[in-house]
Amino acid sequence: MKIQIALNLSSTNNAQILIDGDHYMTCMTGNLHFAAADIVAQVTATKTSLTNLRTAINAAISDNKTDSIKIARDVLDRNLSKLASKVEDVANDPITVEANRIETVHSAGMNLKGQHSPQKHQFTVSNGNISGSVLLTATGGSNAHEWQYTADITGFTNKQSADTTTTAKTEIENLKKATEYAFFHKAIVAGEKSDWEGPLFLVVT
């Protein structure tokens, strides 16, 4: 079969593309399917694009912030498309066993065109009205929501758990000002297995 990957970039907002992109990076880093030098280089370039978009989103409000975000997102989309093309090349390589082609795509964290993707429970993070507080908001419809955060924005160690909520939002207080945190969310749905989403990044004011 001919492998084609669907990233759905045009219909994915900035918050979700950061989540998706981080997932691809986690899946592909150190993955033996993608050990070729050109693929490793593209993974590195894509990581840089993710960082640049995150930086543009979290930058202070300015006259050119919107344009900076658009430019960073365009570069990220181009790098993700290039990365997906390389994954397709590996999956479609004649030396790849037919039975392993789909598994190769899935090992990159990506999906095939026409393949149903699990529903994504998008969440957002913003500074609260009180200094040192943040507001986390998720999509409704779940039985409960779990929340985590950490000031370790590279290794994501020492995660702290906020109170589980039945509503799709929560406020976390007493965070250190002028410090960037990573935030995570998990929707609890009866009868379904859900994964942690994130990280989303925000500098607390």
Report on the structure:
The chain folds into two domains: 5-112, Substrate Binding Domain Of Dnak, Chain:A, Domain 2, CATH 1.20.1270; 123-203, Immunoglobulin-like. By secondary structure, the protein is of the alpha+beta class. β3 and β4 (134-138) form a beta hairpin. It starts with a strand and ends with a strand. The protein has helices at residues 14-28, 37-58, 65-92, 101-107, and strands spanning 5-6, 111-112, 123-127, 134-138, 144-150, 160-165, 169-172, 180-188, 197-203. The chain has a four-stranded antiparallel β-sheet. α1 (14-28) packs antiparallel against α2, α2 runs antiparallel to α3 (65-92) and α3 (65-92) runs antiparallel to α4 (101-107). The mean pLDDT is 90.
Short description:
This protein is of the alpha+beta class. The protein has helices spanning 14-28, 37-58, 65-92, 101-107, and strands at 5-6, 111-112, 123-127, 134-138, 144-150, 160-165, 169-172, 180-188, 197-203.
Q: Which features does this protein show?
A:
Substrate Binding Domain Of Dnak, Chain:A, Domain 2; 9 strands; four-stranded antiparallel beta sheet; three-stranded antiparallel beta sheet; single chain; Immunoglobulin-like; 205 residues; alpha+beta; 2 domains
What is this structure's SSE topology?
Layout: E1 5-6, H1 14-28, H2 37-58, H3 65-92, H4 101-107, E2 111-112, E3 123-127, E4 134-138, E5 144-150, E6 160-165, E7 169-172, E8 180-188, E9 197-203
Antiparallel strand pairs: 1-2, 3-4, 4-7, 5-6, 5-8, 8-9
Helix pairs in contact: 1-2, 2-3, 3-4
